[in-house]
Amino acid sequence: xxxxxxxxxxxxxxxxxxxxxxxxxxxxxxxxxxxxxxxxxxxxxxxxxxxxxxxxxxxxxxxxxxxxxxxxxxxxxxxxxxxxxxxxxxxxxxxxxxxxxxxxxxxxxxxxxxxxxxxxxxxxxxxxxxxxxxxxxxxxxxxxxxxxxxxxxxxxxxxxxxxxxxxxxxxxxxxxxxxxxxxxxxxxxxxxxxxxxxxxxxxxxxxxxxxxxxxxxxxxxxxxxxxxxxxxxxxxxxxxxxxxxxxxxxxxxxxxxxxxxxxxxxxxxxxxxxxxxxxxxxxxxxxxxxxxxxxxxxxxxxxxxxxxxxxxxxxxxxxxxxxxxxxxxxxxxxxxxxxxxxxxxxxxxxxxxxxx
Length: 356
Known about the structure:
This protein is α+β, with helices and mostly antiparallel strands and 356 residues long. The protein contains 11 helices and 9 strands. The chain has helices spanning 18-22, 30-35, 43-47, 62-92, 122-127, 154-172, 175-178, 184-187, 195-203, 213-216, 286-291; strands spanning 38-40, 54-56, 104-112, 135-136, 225-244, 247-262, 272-284, 295-304, 346-348. It is rod-shaped, with a radius of gyration of 45 Å.
């Protein structure tokens, strides 16, 4: 008896059986056939002696598949490494470099109360002055004991102190700078972003608290005086501190004492002493430490004996042995001119003068 749904006379011969209907939806396409692990031998192959009816096919493109897999893994590793290094670099990179502040400067002349003392011998003048125990030249600018800060190593602190000392030596002790013949020894140590202000100060000196050459260096008027002794006396201190994670600050407070004779005078002309106290503030970022340069941000200078009535912007014009400051008082100050700093002048105390 036929099954349910079969024709009364049964399934036609040659027609599909129920088992074949079960696999009717399966399609054996070319890719399926090529991927089969077993392959039936051809009729010619089966006619040969001992030829198996089927044979195992070698795997297709296995080597290529393995290479592709290795390549994909390598690309993934490289991409992950690049992302990691990029994130790490971004997290550890320093902040954008800030431009240095313009130098703020103040120069205060100190007028003598009487005649400027003098003597024939520089050593005698030094011995009778408060500078008798001062060191000579760069020895008077010793480096202090230093240690690392929160964000700067000990070697970086030493580098800042050393560069500040170099600037002090070049701008206060070099004879060619003192006499106004050269400015490059000090200039080469400045941060490049301050060079425009420095150059303008020497090209067009102005008493505006920003562009006075005497705020950058000790500069004596060569038409007024010359050095009687190159062994300049110096005493002072250096101190370093961290102002923020990106900045070291060095403060310098030094007194320089120069033995002078009148310009063009003979070797036996009387010698007088000229005193300059410089209080300077230097700042250093990591670029400055690496390039051995400074940012000079504040300069406060007291110098005498000077006449208050004379302009000390471009040059310091010392009063020499036997001279007085009675020729005139300080220049007038206009309190309504807010674009100009007030004119400052002090008095050189008798104790600051040699006892002769």
